[in-house]
Amino acid sequence: MFTHALTRALRKNKTLRYGVPMLLLVVGGSFGLREFSQIRYDAVKIKIDPELEKKLKMNEVSLESEYEKIKDSAFEDWKNIRGPRPWEDPQLLQGRNPESLKTKTT
User: Fold this and answer.
1) 27-81 pLDDT, tens per residue?
2) Looking at residue 100, what is its pLDDT?
3) CA distance 28 to 34
């Protein structure tokens, strides 16, 4: 009988019904967020293998070096050929002439 009265009192008390779960969510979320943000700082501390680091430094690619590679390329004879749309059959469009794919102008 005492437990029945206690459960009824707990159901009627809005602080215990809504406030305590909200407080647990806020406090628990704070601890969870701390753990997830700690992963970021732990990942910075991890050192990579020295051989791999040396290999990465040797294969350094810069924007300027890539520009020098394609600077002298001839793009005058380049044609823009569209790929097939998701509802079109790619086998039909592959052998076609790009001029036949252009829309008709009236």
Assistant:
1) 999 999 999 889 888 877 787 788 888 887 887 788 888 888 888 877 777 777 7
2) 61
3) 10
**What is the rounded distance in angstroms from the CA atom of residue 17 to the CA atom of residue 7?**
11
- Token pair in block for residue 105: 């102008």
How far apart CA 104 and CA 106 sit, in angstroms, is 6
- Quick one: which of 60, 99, 59 has its CA closest to 81? 99
Of 106, 84, 87, the closest CA to residue 95 belongs to: 84
Residue 34 exposure: Cα atoms within 13 Å on the Cβ side: 6
Asked whether the whole model's pTM tops 0.85, one would answer no
Sequence-distant contacts of 6-14: CB under 8 A, at least 24 apart: none
What's the CA gap between 93 and 37, in Å, rounded?
50
